Amino acid sequence: MYSTSYHRASSVADAVKLLEEADDGKLLSGGMTLIPAMKTRLAAPSDLVDLRHIPELKGIAIEGGSVTIGAATPHYDVASNAQLARICPAITHLAGHIGDPHVRHMGTIGGSISNNDPSADYPAAMLALDATIVTNQRSLSAAEFFTGLFETAMEEREIVTAVTFSAPEKAGYSKFPNPASRYAMTGVFVAKNGGEVRVAVTGAGDNGVFRSAELEEVLSRNFDVSVLAGIRLPSDDLMSDLHATAEYRANLIVVMAKRAVAAANS
Amino acid sequence: MSEVTIVVNGQSVTASVEDRTLLVNFLRDHVGLTGTHIGCDTSQCGACVVHMDGRSVKSCSILAAQASGSEIRTVEGLADGDRLHAVQIAFKQNHGLQCGFCTPGMMMAAADMIRRHPEGLDEETVRAELEGNICRCTGYQNIVKAILAASKEMSRAGKAQAA
Lengths: 266, 163
What we know:
The complex is a heterodimer. By secondary structure, chain A is α+β, with helices and mostly antiparallel strands. Chain A has helices spanning 12-21, 34-39, 75-79, 82-87, 89-95, 101-106, 109-115, 122-128, 142-145, 213-221, 246-265; strands spanning 5-8, 25-28, 47-50, 60-63, 66-70, 132-135, 139-141, 146-148, 151-152, 160-166, 170-177, 184-193, 196-202, 210-211. In chain B, 35% of the residues lie in helices and 15% in strands.
């Protein structure tokens, strides 16, 4: 790891100030992606601004069907929240399958979505749940927030403070984890609200998380696994890498969608 | 440089370290506790697992500066003097190790999962919970057996939550 300077922010305003003072500063939350990237020298920020000790960024608030998750809330806290599991079990299931138990104790939802790894789990949930991403400057829809591979609409000195969403009538998530990294080789999150069905796919698109119009159309007519039988999706715009070809991922999307719908209906 | 103060196995330790110092290096090089191992450079193997404020974490992926102000428990802090922890006894009795390199991380992961599952564990859960710990010798069979035995013993003794 190259040399760096560590700063612990006491508030969001303090974090912004510390970032402004830094030459090439980066926000640090759980650090489960950033620290390993720094160890291999893929990232070399001059300064790290730690958000993990800012009280207002932590915790889960539920009012009726409305859910707010603070950006610095670790995956474990999301996974183990009984109230959240009752109204949106898909999101607790998703959080409980990120990385491994030790990673889930550190990694945070704000860190995950800000990094927007094309194989991360949370972006699919945010997009399918039509979540709002709240920053220290504004609120954005998930569709506006995720702009491409490791890219978001975030400006300099903008910090994600929370995500909010309404618990859907039904939702499910299923992923095919890479056997070594546990990242999704393809993951599908489905959410149903009345006649509207949203299907978001992670781990497969060559421009990051995306919605599948084809699957949304058939599932909004009948939210049942049976309607996915025999569906073949095009492999254009899907990733090909050493783990899987674009064609294989196209097939995985349908398979994961079937499992996600089955989970949502169970 | 950062002045870092961490309570390690009940003893407060203060040291001035480079900001880039990883917690695992702090424990091994500054505190002299070499039970916590470094088995990979990719955050995957889990040989470095310790407990930070009561939760299992990978000390190779956390800066010592991030951990400043926290309480850390390492494998050296499992036993109570000469009395081995139930997890250590179970690993010994069930031959839950061969070369022993992954064992400190395995035992810290085991104690953490037993704490989170006071209702008890089954084989499937133990295997899923070991996602973040790699063993190259045992094929996991005896590690799983050891954790199940420790979990049983600790819930019998009413100690699961205090793991």
